[in-house]
Every structure is written in structure tokens, then in C-alpha cells.
Amino acid sequence: MLLPVADAFPFVSISHQEIIKTEFHIGRKTTSSHSEGKYSAATRCAASLHLFVYLFLLHLFPPIKSLSLYPLAPSFSLSLHRSHRNHASHRTFIQPSIADSLHCNTLLASSMASTSSPCHSQLFCSVSFNRRHLCGRVGFTSNGARRCRRFRNGLGLSIHVRSVLNSNRRSVDGYGAEESARVLFERLFEQTQNRFAGEEPDLRVLESDLEAALMALKKKEAHLMEAERTVLLENSRLKLTKEELERQESEIEAARVRYERLEEEMKEATTKLVSQASQIEELKLSVRDRDREIDTVSYKLRLKEGEVEKMRVQLEVKSKEAVGFESELREKGRLLDEANEVLKKQEAEVEELKRALQEKEEEIEYFLGQREIDREKLRVTEANLEKQATDWLLVQEELKRLGEDAARHAEESRKTMDDFRRVKKLLNDVRSELVSSQQALASSRSKMEEQEQLLERQLNDLAEQRTSVMSYMENLKDAHTEVESERTKLRAAEAWNKELERDLKMERELINELEEELKKERTCLDQAVKEMALLKDELKSKNDEFRETSAILQVKESELVDAKLEIQRLKSEKASLQGILEEKDLELSNAKKLLEEVNQEIFDLRMLMNSKESQLIEATNMLREKDEHVRIIQNKLNKTNQKAFEAESVVERILDLTNKLVASIKDEDLNSSRPRQDEMGNQQLEELVVEPTNESRWQQKRLKNELELAKKSLKEKEMEVLAAQRAITIKDEEMKMTLARLDAKEVELKKVREEVTEDFTDLKRLYALSQERIGDKSLGDLAIEKLQLEAAQLEVEAATQALQKLAQMSRQLMKKAIQSVEADNYLSVMQSNNDKSVDSITDINNSVCLTEVKAGVARLSALTEQLVMDAGIVAVN
User: Fold this and answer.
1) Exposure winner among 478, 504, 623, 802, fewest CB in 10 A?
2) In the chain, what are the domain boundaries?
3) Residue 94 phi/psi, 5° resolution?
């Protein structure tokens, strides 16, 4: 539609169709001002400018008849303000209605000064528009100094809008014409003044000026439309940031709850460490008690050494007595050799006795074979025990190492506990400072609501805080996952400890079973000793039978006296003499056997004495070794596990030596008795074969002489018989004496055996004491110590990992705090440049809070680094 000017200006025409057809996008809705009857801010501003031009033309040219403004039906408000040089710039913000109605006020202030100074005239144009849920504001101000204002949206975009009418340059975004509208209006004003002064205006120049002003206004309208679009986009972004801030607040609350849970878990860990320290002290006390027990055992060993020396002296005395007894037996052997002639008749009985002895020897051999089988079993069991002892040694060495590591880690854990307490105090301080900073932020938010100009800057701050909180939440989640992984590790370690305890119980049961088997074998040995005692009883009974035979011999001697009275009956005398000789032969054979047995017993006594001496030598060596072991134990009291192992090894060696000694003694007895018996038997047979021939010849000669000189030598024969009887009685008395001495030797042997059994029982007692003090109880305690040390190591590792995490978190917090402080400082500087008078108090409060937070975070990071260095952890950059 055209605006016809009066007859004076037929060439002036303002086309509003272009302005009406301009479309402006609000959100996603595009409206046409002509079709719907609603007009954008740019069109309304342009219409107001056209109206201003129309009024100005009416003022200049009163003959203008009419001006049709029908399309611009909505109400406009136009106000002219006259301002002086020193008046301030004005901003007009008009809130629109709910129905997207837009109002535009154009304020034109023209100074009353001369037209030669264009800086005194000012034009103020402010457009504000709003949708139902969006809020935006565009402010255009113009003053004489050509200042540049900043428009900020949610993304920090700034649009600099310079005054259109107060600059001779082009527009900032390239929308301005070569000459500004203000210059054109000044020209029009000068022309009007010239007209009133009487000069005729140049209408062509006026028309060109008006067209240039309209073109500048159109370009400014397009610029305003683009600004409106950016403002709408910023409003949508502001909505999204508000929703994200609400989500962040919920996430911050969840993070706070998790942090409290972590604090509770740390408290539980500290209580566990305290309990473990008390357990370690109890274990130290138990180790001291064991050291005292070892001292008592060493004192008992010294007493045993004195007793062994006494036994050695007694054995030397007995050896001397045995030497004297051997000399006496040799002399008696000579006398008994002369009586062999009388004992020929007893060969048959000797053979029967030999057979019985052979049967018993076979039984003894069978028993020895069984005993060797039992010994082999014992050796197998001893080998198994040695293997188990080596396994226990390895376990004890590992326990020692773990004990040393636990002692080191215990000291480190105490230091870390103090550091943890300090860290907790610092965390509480930081928390209080964070609470104060949150309160300051709440107050700043209230101020931000009152002062809407600071809303965009605070939204940027909140976005940065959101990123920091999200990173902190991620760190907390990582810490939670790491804590759960450590819990799983602890559970696995506990299960492994339970399995170790089960294995230890199984090994203890096996050891108990082996001890029961050893007891059974000892009972078998006791039975064998009893059987040997029965054999000795049988030998005693045979000695009694020999005494009876000696009494029978005395009776036969009386018969010989009767036979001498009947010398005339030579045949009867021969028969009687032959019978007597046979009886004497039997007696002599028995006497020889007795002598052989006595010799064998003497030999056995010598062997026993030698074995006792060897035992004493070995016992002295063992006692010396024990003394050395006791000295080593006294020098190494701190290493209780090694002491226990050495005591066990010493006791096992003692038992092995005693068993070997007993076995060797028995084997030597048997091996030595057999060849001696065989040699003596062969000698007796040869003597018996040789002696009868000699004796028979001598008897025949004697009988012949007696027959010839029977009458002459009756008295001589009687005297010889009496002398023979006397010699026999003497020999009988000597035999009785030897038997008495043999009985005394048997008593002494019994005493020696009893002493040996007492020594064996003493060794058993020592072994039992060592097992009780170094055995199952000590091993169980060592296993418990090992488990406790492993648990302490796991807890120390968990503490070090927690320290590492605290160090990493403190570094991240430090970086974020520095970034936030730098951003806040930048924002505060920009704020102070824009609005110093309004925001000075809030900037001071925020800067103080941020400096306090920064100092607290720096302290926390320094403390965590110190803790990490004390714990021996390398900081990860």
C-alpha cells in the first residue's frame, strides 16, 4: 500500500508492502503481519519511524492533505524527548502480553542546541519480546560516545549493537548504509530550518535522504530479526541447563550419601587394625613364655649329663670286677678239663639239650626276623616323619618371614592411622568449608534472581560446576568399585586361610596316628623282652637240675666205696668202675657245658660292657651336641621357630641313636653267641673223641696192675679213692662258688638292664616334653600367627590403595578448584567492568570462599602426598 503525499509531494511514496511482507520467526512459528493482523517488532519499529517521518513532513509541509496508515492499525506510542548534553542514556523494556503481542516504543530525543553539533541528538530504541515460556531481551542504546554494549546468551555469545543514528560508519554486521539515518535526518532538519528562514528546500535531496534512511532501517530490521532468533535459541538452552542443574543436585546428594558410607567403612577398618595390634602383643607374650620353658629344658639336660657321668664311673668299676672274674673262671676251666673223663656218660643228655637249644634258637631267629620287619616299618615311619619335619621347617621359615613383614607393616600401619585421623579432620574442615560455600552459592542465587542481568554468567558457572561434580561422581564410583574388589579379595584370602587350617588339622591327625603306631611297636618290644626273661628262667631251672645230678654223683661215690670193699669181684668192680666212669663222663660233659655257658655269659658281659661304654661315649657326644644346641638356643632366643625345630631334631636323633644302640646290642649278642657256640661244640667233640681212647687205655693198664697187685695195693687204692673223693668234693665246692658268682653276675646284669630301661624311659620323657612344648601346640600357634600376619598384610595393602585413591582424588579436586577459581576470577573481572556498583559485595564473598576452598584443597593434597610418601607409594602423575 502506498502513502500518497499531498499535491506538493507527488513523488514521495512509502511502500509498506515490503515491511508488511517481512516475516519474523518466533520459535518454530512463522507469522505474516498482513494475513493474521499481528506485527513483528521490526515492522512495528519501521512503522513508527514512517509515522515519525510523516509527522515531520506535516511539520515541514502543512499542505499535505492525507496519509493512509490503514495496514498499521495496532496502537503505537510515540514520544519525543528533548535532552541536554549531560543527560544519561535511556532504556525502554516493554513486557509483551501472553498472545505474543509486541509493543515498540521509539524514543527520539533531539537537543535544543544548534544543528552543527550532531552529537547532542540521541535516538533510543528498545525492543523486548516474550513467548509464553521463553524470556529474552534485546537492548539497543545509543549515546554520544558511541559505546558498544554486549548481548550475552547461554553459550556466551555476545552481539555488539552500535547506535544506528549516532555513527557515521557502517553497521557492525554490515547492514548499515554508506550514510547513517541520523545524518539524513539532520539534513532534513537543516532543510526545514532553511525553509523557515526563507530558503527554498531542495526536494530531490530530501527524497534521496528519505530513501537512504528507509534502506538503513530495513537493514536494521533484518539484524533485529536475527538477534531475536539467537535470543530464542538461548532461552531454549537455558531451559535445558536448568533441568541439568536439577539432575546434578540429585546426583550430588547421592554422592554425599556414598561418601558417608565410605567414612563408616574407614572407621570399621581402624577398629580392626587396633584389634590386630592387641593380638600381636599377646603373641609376643606367648613367645616369651616359650623361651622360659626352653631354659628349664636346658637345665634338666644338664642334670641328665651329671647322671650319665655317674653311670660311666659305675661301669668302669664293674668292668674291673669282670676282669677278675674272668681270671678265676680260667683257673676253674683247667680244673674242669681234668674232670672230663668222668662226664662221658652224659653225652646223650647233652645231645638232647642241644636239640632243645636248636629248637629254641630257631624260635629266636623267627622272632628276630619279625623284629627286623618291625624295624623296617619303623624306618619307613621315621622317613615319613622326617619328610613332615622338613615340611614344617619350610612352613616355619615362611612364618618367620611373615612375622618380620608383619612387624614392619605394624609400625607403618600405626603411622598411617595417625595420618588417617589427620586426613579425617581435614576432610571435616573441607566439608564445613564446602557447606559454607554452598550457603554462599544459595545467597548468590537469590541475588541472581533479583538481578536478572547476572543469570547468564551464573548459568555458565553452574555448567562448570556440573562438569566438576560429574567427574567427582565418577571418581566416587571408581572408589566404590575398588572397595568392593578389595572386599572380594579379603573373602578369598579368608577362604584360603580356612583351607590351610583344615590341612593343618589333617596333618595333626596323621601325626597322632603315627604316635599310636609307635606305641604299639613299643609294646611289641616289651613283649620280646618278657620272652627273653622267660628263657632266662628256663636256664635257671636247668641249673637246678644240674645240682640234682651233682647230688646223684655223690650217691654214686658212696657206691664206689662199697665196690672197693668188694675188690675180689673184679668183674663186678670193672662194671661198677665203668658205670662210675660213664657217670663221671656225663658229669664232666655237664661241667664243660656249664663252663662254656659261663664263658659265653662272661663274653656277653664283656660285650655289654663294651656296648655300654660305646653308649656312654655316644651319650657324652650327644650331651655335648645338646650343650651346643642349648648355647645356640640361648643366643637365638628371638627365633623361637628355629629353636623348636632344633629341639625336635635333637630329640629325634636321640631316639634314633637309642633304637640303633639297642638293635646293635641285640644283633651283636646273637651274632657273637652263635659262632662261639659252634667253635666250643667242635672242640668238645674232638676232646670227647680223643679223651675216651686215652682214658680206656689207662684204665685197662690200671686194672691189670690192680689185678696183679690187688692184695698188695688195697690200702693204697682205698687212699687214692679217698683222695679222689676229696678232689671231687673240692671241685663241687668250686662249682657251687662259680654258680653263686654267676647268680651275682645275673643280678648285676638285671640291675644294668633296669638302668638301661630307666635311661630309655628318661629319653622318652624328654622326647614327650619336647613334643609337648615344640609340637602340636606350638605349630598351631605358629599357624594362627601366620594367618594373622596375612590378614594384617591384606589390610595394610588395602590402606595403601585407599591412600593412593585419596591422593588421586585430592589432585583432581585441586585441578577442578583451580579451574573454577580461574573461571570465577575471569567472570568477576568482566562483571566489575560492566556492573561495579551492583555486584561488588557478591564478588568479594565469592572470592573469599573460593580462596578458602583452594587453601583447604591444597592442604588436603599436601597431606595425602605426605601419607603416600610415608607409606612408600610412588605418586602417579
Assistant:
1) 478
2) 17-240, 274-792
3) -115, 120
